[in-house]
């Protein structure tokens, strides 16, 4: 299949959605082009789900504009979209083959081909499959009609690293065939699999770009001490967002000098240095 | 296992004819956090249930404190949804034998620490996933247990609540508790002092995260194309591959391993063993 290169498949411009008094999404710009994997990251209540619902055409924006394949979302654009919800959207009481046949009939497309250990699972009820295989069935169905845009909600939740890697192989293969992919996830390590990230906080875009661009020069104070327990208690009691990594402590966004002073006052010997913040630390600071 | 640690030795757990765990040895020392990692069906819940005493081992031994010195949060809601936040904390604190004065003092402190003070009169069933997990954790630590066992407390929880949950369980470890956390997230496991990786009911890898990574045999390489003839997987837009004999295939370079790579390599080796 050939497609025009890097077409803008999904675009939100100043997309806004209000529910009564609540401004759930507030002037969000977001694009997904063919061939790229974009991660949409946000805490609960950040507006992620509302934005996705607008992109899917399930909810109209109260202001701003949402376009799918250059037109307002509709039944027609829906046919060019593959969506895997977190709940997977499978019929648990039907077999794998019945799920595939049903979806192929609904889309008017050819039936998806099952590969590997799924090839033998056609007659198995979906509810009897392990989670990793159920996820692959949902992927196969979402990809069965050759969609131009894939929208994936927490695509690898609950599976082991090898299964996660295999699911990402499928996601990447879709992008390499020219599809655009929008992934929402709580799993920040998964964000590193994306080409580009959009971080939502309180309905607005708090940051956008590559992971390295978003972290930028954000730092954390790293604390090395033989008495991590005492250091942790002192910093935690002072209300600092301290975290434990092995036996090292980290305080995102904190000034090392201030941390050193605080630990000195508590009588805890420690080496404190400024280190590059992790994506997770940067995200938590952006989201709160 | 020394006298100071909790855990199990050569543990087996069966449900009828199904073998959930086999020959699993695990230890967690006071004042440390141990992570138990694996996907759906790896055996995490069975191990945690055995540590908490809610399932009887079919083989091996378990060393755990008396029931009243143990805190356990099972997978799922872990709270009484028809009781308020306050009632949940008082009910479980009472069940662990805290006297009313002590209970009053600790409930107040825990509500502050978990950020649930403003929600104390809300029904637990109306809380968000993150708040509900914080309440379940608060209920499990109110009696200051020696061993704290948490089954996937951060699954489905957003990253802000997850950071808060990890701070709470680190605070328990700082107070001297031995903490066991099951998770499917390897970036979380990398923060623990020790990690046990389960696969199909067996121990796949164990040690400190650094030890586990350092023990990976051969070499992991990265390139822009899929290297031919080697087990490979995606990392972002690039390919990673495992070179068992340590040679570097053309157009690839070695990478700094993380726990995710180490577990993928171990699973690939295990798959070969099962296939053989």
Summarize the structure.
The complex is a heterodimer of chains A (288) and B (276). With 288 residues, chain A is of the alpha/beta class.
Alpha-carbon Rg of chain A, integer: 22 Å
Interface with most residues: A-B, 47 and 50 residues
Beta strand count of chain A = 13
Fraction of residues of chain B in helices?
25-40%
Computed structural class of chain A: alpha/beta
CATH topology of the largest domain in chain B: Rossmann fold
Categorize the overall geometry of chain A: globular
If strands are numbered along the chain, what order do they take across the biggest sheet of chain A?
A: 5-6-7-3-8-9
The figure for the number of domains of chain B is: 3
* Quaternary structure: heterodimer
General description of the model:
The complex is a heterodimer of chains A (288) and B (276). Chain A is α/β, with parallel strands linked by helices and 288 residues long. Chain A has helices spanning 48-56, 75-78, 96-107, 131-143, 161-176, 188-191, 211-215, 228-237, 256-265, 279-287, and strands at residues 8-19, 22-33, 37-42, 63-68, 81-84, 149-153, 180-185, 196-201, 204-209, 219-224, 243-245, 248-252, 271-276. In chain A, helix 4 runs parallel beside helix 5 (161-176). The radius of gyration of chain A is 22 Å and the shape is globular. Mean pLDDT of chain A is 90; it is low at 1-5. By secondary structure, chain B is of the alpha/beta class. Chain B folds into three domains: 1-65 and 146-208, Rossmann fold (3-Layer(aba) Sandwich), CATH 3.40.50; 76-144, no CATH class; 210-275, no CATH class. In chain B, 33% of the residues lie in helices and 27% in strands. Chain B contains eight helices and 13 strands. In chain B, strand 11 and strand 12 (238-243) form a beta hairpin. In chain B, helix 2 (85-95) crosses helix 3, helix 3 runs antiparallel to helix 4 (129-141) and helix 4 packs parallel to helix 5. The model of chain B has no long low-confidence stretch (mean pLDDT 91).
